[in-house]
Amino acid sequence: MPTEKKAKVIDNLEKVFSRCSIGILTDYRGLTANEMTSLRRRLKESGIDYKVVKNTLARIAAKRVGREELVSLFDGPLAVAFGYGNISLPAKALADYIQASKSAMSIRGGFLPNRLLTSADIITLSSLPSTEVLISRVLAGMQKPIVALVGNLSAPLQGIIGVLQARINQLKGG
Questions:
Q1: 22: which strand partners?
Q2: 173 contact partners, CB below 8 Å, separation of at least 6
Q3: Cβ neighbours around 95 below 10 Å, total
Q4: What is the C-alpha separation between 31 and 27, in angstroms, rounded?
Q5: What is the pTM assigned to this prediction?
Q6: At a CB cut-off of 8 Å and minimum separation 6, what does 46 contact?
Q7: Tens digits of per-residue pLDDT, 13-67?
Q8: What is the pLDDT of residue 2?
Q9: What is the average pLDDT across 75-88?
Q10: What local confidence, expressed as pLDDT, does residue 173 receive?
Q11: Cβ neighbours of residue 81 closer than 8 Å, sequence gap 6 or more
Q12: What is the rounded CA–CA span in Å between residue 144 and residue 162?
């Protein structure tokens, strides 16, 4: 590949490293061309870029962006899934694909803007509930004490109302 093409690849990787919210490194060996195309299509539908990268060019791009910690990750044949937004979405998509297709592909690790991730971290991310579910759980947790307080405050009033109603019924009947 001519130097000009390599420079374009490095520039593209620099942009991706700067923009992405998560990168997940996978060992794609053992996948057929059809399986790779299917995986790329599936990930693209979720807004995830999946690229086979040349390690040397990826190391250069990581250094240029100031992400020196990423240099050690690029070793051996690998492809990277780049996510832009919800960090659990790419992890879920890859884990689901690996489980559904029973492919030989494996997750080697990954990175966030501020830290490196192990393959175990990626698996943990893939098992997290969606953002909407987490938000609803937090809101339900915030609402629960308020509902309990209202119930406890209204209980004595309910008791007084019950006693008064019983007295009214007693006076009507007697």
A1: 83
A2: none
A3: 18
A4: 9
A5: 0.71
A6: 89, 90, 93
A7: 888 888 888 999 988 887 888 888 888 888 888 888 888 888 888 889 888 888 8
A8: 56
A9: 87
A10: 79
A11: 23, 24, 26, 43, 48, 49, 50, 90, 93, 94
A12: 26
pLDDT single digits (tens) 145-166 = 888 888 888 888 888 888 889 8
The residue assigned the tokens 């490194």 is 25
- Cβ-contact 94, 24 below 8 angstroms: yes
How is residue 92 written in tokens? Answer: 């879920």
CATH architecture of the domain 3-128 equals 2-Layer Sandwich (3.30)
The fraction of the chain above a pLDDT of 70, given in percent, is: 98
Cα dihedral 32, 34, 35, 39 sign: positive
Order the strands of the 22-27 sheet from edge to edge.
49-52, 79-83, 22-27, 106-111, 116-117
What residue segments make up the domains of the chain, in order of their start? 3-128, 129-174
pLDDT band for position 174 (cuts 50, 70, 90): low
Instruction: Indicate the helix (H) or strand (E) that contains 144.
Output: helix 131-173
Maximum separation of any 2 CA atoms in the chain, in Å: 106
For tokens 């790779």, the residue is 36
Contacts of 70 (CB under 8 A, 6+ apart): 17, 58, 59, 62, 111, 116
Nearest to 130, CA basis, from 81, 88, 85, 84: 88
Fill in the amino acid letter for 80. V
